Every structure is written in structure tokens, then in C-alpha cells.
Amino acid sequence: MTGLREAHAHLVAHGRSASMVQLGGARSAADALERLRAAADADSSGAWLLATGARPESWPERGWPTLAELDAAVPGRPALAWCFDHHAVMVNSPALRAAAIDGATPDPPGGVIVRDSAGRPKGELLESAAMRAWAAVPEPTLAESREHLDRALSDLTSLGFVEAHDLKSQPWLGPMLADLEREGRLPLRVHLYPLVDDLPAVAAGRRAWESDRVRLGGGKIFTDGTLNSRTAAMLHPFADPIPDHPRGTPMMTADEIEAAIGACERLGLGLAAHAIGDAAVRAVLDAVERVRPRACRVRVEHAEIVDRADVPRFARLGVVCSVQPCHLLADVEALRRLLPHRLDRVLPLRDLIDAGCEPGRLLLFGSDTPIVRPHPSDSVQAATARRRAGEPPEAAIAPAQAVTEAEAWACFASS
Asked: Does domain 4-15+145-410 have CATH number 3.20.20.140?
């Protein structure tokens, strides 16, 4: 092994998250509210109060605070708290107004505005609705983003990484990395995957910044949501689904997935497809089987639930399975409550390797930082023990899918 590869990161977001209120350690909705209240009291600027890392599915309430409670904790200024998976937010009333969301606002395509019995927004926004609120937050300056990037690169280097794949890369990230390389301050090789909609423009300018250390890998799409937000696209209903969304929320049609593969194929670039639920995973594999791309190497990102029938299709189609086993450690409560009937299909790593997904080539490990911390030992723990450290063996989820420690580390190996 020549070094470690972080196969799924959000570099600038990782650095930026350090400046937000940290809710990862909150043990309840009340604890989260107190952390937000204390942060608001310590900063009288009136600027947006941003928080990250909330895990409401693990709280005793199994849900966010009420809108009234958040308004009382952070009054008179907009506040937005990310669920740790970055597919759901809780916002207060000033943030709802800033995002132009009220009782008359329809759910945006691919999103959900959670409402009370009278149809009024409760402050919880899912998927594209969450992004609508996030779009109202002032963007950092490029100088601030460069500081965030510097922090992220330093953090990953300290953990032994020599390569990182940035998924959902900003169009300006390639030139910024090239500047760092020219200054002798780029410690990692970086592969970029901007959104497919941005890919033609990014590809057109790549000659100005691409090098052996900064590469354009391909485009990125989102075919579904997440498990904690109950928006992952599933073949079978969630045990406790969102009303009117029993099997989650598909984000793309079959035709749209095929079109994305075709767009990357024409540019001679790869495609990274976010697909967490087993229905989304199948949709991507089906699209690859229909299109049969030659130049476009397709990666399925996350693949947290994979139906047994789809496991051998990865190796047969040459599709990379890029997973983050560390998410199992964060998703335990959600998995047990929402998918008790599908636990045997959670991260089927043993089956994937046995079906021909070679570690480090067709089976890659990453973290999705800042969704969870990028420590590779977390994914090794999850992949080999299938449970949190210190828990008894009977707490393991799908223990038959455990891999060896050598296989787990090989999935991080940079070529």
C-alpha cells in the first residue's frame, strides 16, 4: 500500500463545517436547542446561525425540535441546522421567510416541506426543499473557501491520505487546487466530480488547471435521498415512512440517469451516482446495462442497501461500488427502526467481494466527510465488526457481511 485514498469527500464543506455549531454530540432535541441558544447568545451579529451534525433519529424524541422551540432558542435571526447526512435541515421562522417558504409554497420537485395538520411548515425541510433554504444562506467568499480547503487538506493528510475524491465539486475548485499546487501547498492528489449540469463548462476549462495531481474524474448525480431522512429510494416500504412516500423519494427517472451517463460518455469522463436505497442502486445498474458505456466508468456512491439479486451485477458490468462503511456506525438507530426487515442487505461487503468486486479497484472506501468524520479506522471497524466499538457481538448488523481487516484496508489503498 502506497498510501490511503479517501474515495468520497466534500473538501470545502469539511473545512467549512468546523466553523458551525456542532450538534453531533447532542443527546436530545433539548440538548441541541441549548447548544443553539448558547451559540446565539455568544454572537450578537444577527448573521445566519448555522449548525451541523444533528442526529435526530438517535434522540429520545426521534425527531427535531418544534418550530416554536427553535424560534425561542434563536429569535430574530435566521437559523439552519443540518441533519448529519446533509439531506434534511431544521430552520426557524426567519430562515423560512428568507427562503420564501410558507403554507402556500408547494413541495419542490424532489423535496418535501414537512407540515403540520393545518398545512403550515414545521421547519423541517427534506432534499431539494432543504437546498432551497441553504441557497438563501450567504456564500463564503473565495478567500474564505480557500481557508476551508486548506483546513480540509491538512486534516486528511494528518490521517494518512495521499489521494481524495471530491464529490459534487464546485466549478472553481479545480483552479483553486491548481493555485495551491503551484505554491507547493497541495499535499494530496485530488479527483474532482462536479454535478453533471456543471460538467461541460468545467471540462471546457480543464486544460488551464488539470495536472497529474489534480484531475477531472467525471460528473455527479443524485438518484435518491438518505435513510435517516427516509428519502432513500427503496424496493420495499420503510417500516415508518414519510406520509405519501412509503418507499422514499427517487430523485431521477430512468431516462434522466441514462442521459447523465450519455453526457459523461461524450466527454470521455466517469459518472458518480449517489444511490443509497436498493431501488436507486438497481436503477443505476439498469441504466448502465441499457446504455453499455465504453468511455464512462460508472461509480455507485453509498450503496447502503443492495438487493441480493443486484450484487453480482457490479462486477459483471464493471461498475465501481464506492461505499462508506462508517455510516453504519452513525445509522444504527435509523436502520433498526426504519428497515428491520432489510438489515441483512445493509452494506453487503462480503457478498460484493465474493462476487468479484476487488478491494481497491471495484470496491472503494471513503467517509463522505463532513457527513461523518474521515477517520479510516471507523470504516475498518464497521466493515470488520459490523457494530460500534465496545458493543457486544449480538449488536452487529448483518454480521455475515463482515470482511477481514486486510480487505478493509485494501479498499482504502491508493494505486
From this structure: yes
**Does the bond joining 243 to the residue before it have cis omega, within 30 degrees of 0?**
no
The residue extents of the domains of the chain are: 4-15+145-410, 16-135
Just give the CATH number of 16-135: 3.10.310.70
How would DSSP label each residue in 65-114? PPHHHHHHHS-SS-EEEEETTSSEEEE-HHHHHHTT--TTPPPPTTEEEE
Residue 1's pLDDT is 44
**Domain 4-15+145-410 and domain 16-135 have a common topology:** no
Instruction: Reply yes or no on whether the pLDDT at 131 is more than 90.
Output: yes
Q: How far is CA 140 from CA 137, 145, 148, 162, 393, in A?
A: 9, 6, 10, 27, 45
| Confidence at 244, pLDDT banded by 50, 70, 90 | confident
Q: What is the C-alpha separation between 393 and 112, in angstroms, rounded?
A: 38
Alpha-carbon torsion 309, 231, 81, 65, what sign?
A: negative
What's the N-to-C CA distance of the chain in angstroms?
Answer: 8
Is beta strand 21-22 parallel, antiparallel or unpaired with respect to 49-54? parallel
Counting runs of H as helices and runs of E as strands, what totals does the chain give?
Answer: 15, 15
2-6, 35-39, 251-255, 310-314: segment of lowest average pLDDT = 2-6
Which grid coordinates are listed for 309? Answer: 439479486
Instruction: Give how far Cα 355 sits from Cα of 46, 206, 359, Å.
Output: 55, 37, 11
DSSP assignment letter at 115:
E
**How would you class 215 by CB atoms within 10 Å of its CB: exposed for 0-12, middle for 13-18, buried for 19 or more?**
middle
Q: Categorize the per-residue pLDDT at 234 as very low, low, confident or very high, splitting at 50, 70 and 90.
A: very high
Among 346, 335, 336, CA closest to 399: 346
Q: Alpha helices, DSSP H only, in 185-310?
A: 199-204, 254-267, 278-291
Rounded CA gap, 359 and 172, in Å?
Answer: 32
* Gap between the Cα atoms of 283 and 255, Å rounded: 10
| pTM tops 0.90 | no
Whose CA is closest to 411, among 351, 341, 375, 362? Answer: 362
The whole-angstrom distance between residue 15's C-alpha and the CA centroid of its chain comes to 15
Nearest residue to 264 via CA among 244, 291, 283: 291
